[in-house]
Fold:
Amino acid sequence: MSQKIFAPWDDPNEKPLIRFENVTKKFGDFTAIDDLTLNIYEKEFFALLGPSGCGKTTMMRMLAGFENPTSGKMELAGKNIAGTPPNKRAVNMMFQSYALFPHLSVWENIAFGLKRGSMDKRAIAARVEEMLKLTRLTKFAGRKPHQISGGQRQRVALARSLAKAPKLLLLDEPLGALDKKLRQDTQFELMDIQESTGTTFVIVTHDQEEAMTVASRVAVMDEGRIIQVATPDGIYEAPNSVYVADFIGDVNIIEGTAKPAGDGVYFLDWTENEPPFLATSDVPFSDGQKAHLAIRPEKISITTEKPDDAKNTVQGTVLDIAYLGNLSTYYVQLADGRIIKAQTANTRRLSRRSITWEDKVWVSWNATAGVLLEQ
Amino acid sequence: MRRASWFNVTALTLGFAFLYLPMVLLVIYSFNSSKLVTVWAGFSTKWYGELLQNEAFLDAAVITLKVAVASSTLATILGTMAAYVLVRGGRFLGRTLFSGMIYAPLVMPEVITGLSLLLLFIGIGLDRGVLTIVLAHTTFSMCYVSVVVSSRLVSFDRSLEEAALDLGCSPFDAFRLVTLPIIAPAVISGWLLAFTLSLDDLVIASFTTGPSSTTLPIKIWSAVRLGVSPEINALSTIMIGIVTVGVISASLVSKRNAVKAQQDMQAAERGAT
Structure:
């Protein structure tokens, strides 16, 4: 069965729902958003990911209308919205603190936005019931926010922001206040709701796992700039910089100089007494150019005997083992003192594991296992 | 529990005696049947009966209540607006001056406030009466309201207002439908504070009063100058009673609300799904 892949960002005819064009936002001398250009498409689940202070919250607040760009163009469905106040935008936001009105019941909280329009009473009631059902809150309609649990409050906040059927829903760290187990369940719930309502979601998060799970595309931000925008697997497997590779997941970075070795294949000289590593790259490198090989620990094999078929092998000593239950990460120290992380799935019980501390081991990987990065 | 030392017991007794003994004496003597205030001649409630016949006192009471209601309501509206601007307005030109000027009446000697208001009313040719007392009381009590309300606004989660705007409210609607209901307890206690301040003010009222607008404190003060009568004791006892009931019920209500909120919270955590 072939299914059409959802990828409007690859279609040049597709009109973006949101367009940032050279948007800059300054607070006094501080530049929060620096000349940012970005398209977000309809029905996307778009994640803004970055450390605190990277500008992701400012971007969201500009979309909601609480901040206005200092310069640049911001469009929603083809209309410039810079300067439009928040109450005149077809954009709703789910706040990090949920911001539920404490003096109103769950029902009244959800109905709050609907009552501001010209909707008649019966239509409002029907819409609230629909939202209550969608978020499984029907039983709690009469309760006040302080009379329900954290997970329920989160769902009330979601229902309230979705009630007006906005073109765009903004979620500011929506799961930050929930514990880990509940957060995982809620992630899938969010995805289901996003899909069933067909609303475009933009989520702000500093939790990379959350961004990878829910999003159709992820934008990694740093210091007011977008470093990379790609699908979760694109971000993980083909990061465009050491910053992104390092920010998402665990990675080994091996610095060296590149030497072309045929069509898209390069040698990486990384130390004096060992043979160079072989790596492929879509980005061209010139002879002697500085390069970083980024390679994920799970792409590296660890063996006691030297493997015959691998392109890159190097010997070292096991320095440390981080046992995570399902996985184990081996910290292997090479002859020059460098440490390589290799990860294996623990498919066997612990007692039968063959590699332990101080063992001489071989780490190995293929030419295509890592990516070569300029910076 | 720690046992009370003799020092603590003595200090407590002396302290309470210092605070409440005069009032207790006043209450006791209000039930004295003798015309002489300092000679006990048996229990009686006749002075309370006479009080109800005394039209001058009743008129003064009505005027005092009118002034207190009007001035505390005005002070609450103005004080809340001032607090909102100070807390929410961000930085604007003259903000420091404005906040300083709002709180200045808190420390200003009443005599000076009263005198300057009197000069103002004479200057603009406003006849002194109920209106001038209301204006004067509003002036000095609005800063108290402003202090109470702004301390509540500082701890108010700004995102609640933003959520209201986000859901389609105009800024005024957001204030009316979200901010005001949530800060209502602070606004009400600000009103009560302004009300009691107006109720027992003597100095400013005597500066700004006119011939037909004698308030109760002025009436009592001038009556006492001719000698303390048991009637005044009775009147004062009634006022003490009103204030006591008000304070106790206000604290009971707030305590009950706090306990209930905590119980609800615990119930919610237990029933979490």
User: Anything to note?
Assistant: The first strand of chain A starts at residue 18 and ends at 27. The two ends of chain A are 41 Å apart (CA to CA). Chain A has a mean pLDDT of 90.
